Amino acid sequence: MYKLVVYKDSIQGRLARVLWSYGRFSNVTLALSDTNTATVLMDGDTCLMEQWPSIIGHAIKGSPTEDVLVPADAVSTMNSWIDFALQRDFSIMQKSCVQMLDNYLLNHTFLVGNNITVADLVVYVSTHSWMVGRCSYACSALQLKSESADRLEFVNLVRWFDHIQHLPGIVNSFKDLPLVPIEKDMELVTTVMEKVTVIPPGAKGKPSKVAAKSALKENKNPKQPAEDRPIADIRVGQIKSVERHPEADRLYCLKIDLGESELRDICSGLVDYLSPEQLLSQYVCVLSNMKPKSLRGKMSNGMVLCVSNEDHTKIELLKPAMGSVIGERVVMEGCAGEPDTVLSTKTGKDPFVAVQPEFKCRDKRAYYKEHPFMTSKGPCTCETLLTGTIS
């Protein structure tokens, strides 16, 4: 039996705890040491000279998350990201490295493929110190201690980081990897963009060099503007289990596969409309970027989207096109922009409330304004309702 010995208070110790906890590694025993010693992989009494990609390969073998976290068709790409972090001692602080990550993540939700992999977990731990503005050594001109204003330069990296840190199994699970608040960053973006004036070509006058800087000092509590972009992160899921909520007669407790390492727990008020048999094994569209919340003592982490008629007497599941891949994002065709990493649930600041009235069903198909809900296999539809609202 393999055993990994690692100093518990080191960066590698934090990394090991995240990997073993989230990935449910079982092939290698994790031994957290109180002594500041080198990280060592042991095979009985024999010390093996192994680097982290090999250690992870040993540890995840046979685990229930292996197929998800280590995609067979992208192992080399995943290992290259692990090596990237390893070469920097799992502390990515240099501006050139942060910039490279930001550029790469411009067109990627995850580092490898369409789901979280070990690469995302490793780089998440490796960028955490930068995100909280903490250096383990004196920062030079090439190294960054991030603040909200600094992070505006690397919005793709920040968006990816915030997505990873809010995943079930990571959010608030590790006391030495605390949740990094991003909302202040977004308020700063809103303030700057509201205040900066663009001078069109040929217009007289010059744009102020200090426009953006002045904007940061004004309007500390700006209103959040309505956005014409797909802020809802909707994913294809499959319902794996259905149980009645023990404390709420009208709620089901669902477990839904979204292609993540663990099934999502979602409470849904469908008891009066659909039987457990009508829900079990169904492919559904899940609003996946809601903040987890407790509903009568049960945690709920998302929303199953349904179509209802005008008087709300009939409700049907909104279903992805047949053949859609579990975990695939539902896009609004022709609608540009990335969804929010996490929807705000603060009173008066829930952006989903602003766009939900624009979610409509026409001819059994789902639309955001005029943009159809689409997966790689086609449109999202309900069974019989020709018109209705989606929520």
UniProtKB/TrEMBL annotation:
InterPro entries: Glutathione-S-Trfase_C-like (IPR010987), Glutathione-S-Trfase_C_sf (IPR036282), GST_C (IPR004046), NA-bd_OB-fold (IPR012340), tRNA-bd_dom (IPR002547), Tyrosine-tRNA_ligase_regulator (IPR051270). PROSITE patterns: GST_CTER (PS50405), TRBD (PS50886). Residues 204-227 are annotated as: Disordered. Pfam families: GST_C, tRNA_bind. Signal peptide: none annotated. Residues 228-331 form the TRNA-binding domain. The keyword Membrane does not apply. GO terms for molecular function: tRNA binding. Residues 42-188 form the GST C-terminal domain. Residues 215-227 have a biased composition (Basic and acidic residues). Keywords: RNA-binding, tRNA-binding. The keyword Transit peptide does not apply. This is tRNA binding domain containing protein. It comes from Babesia divergens.
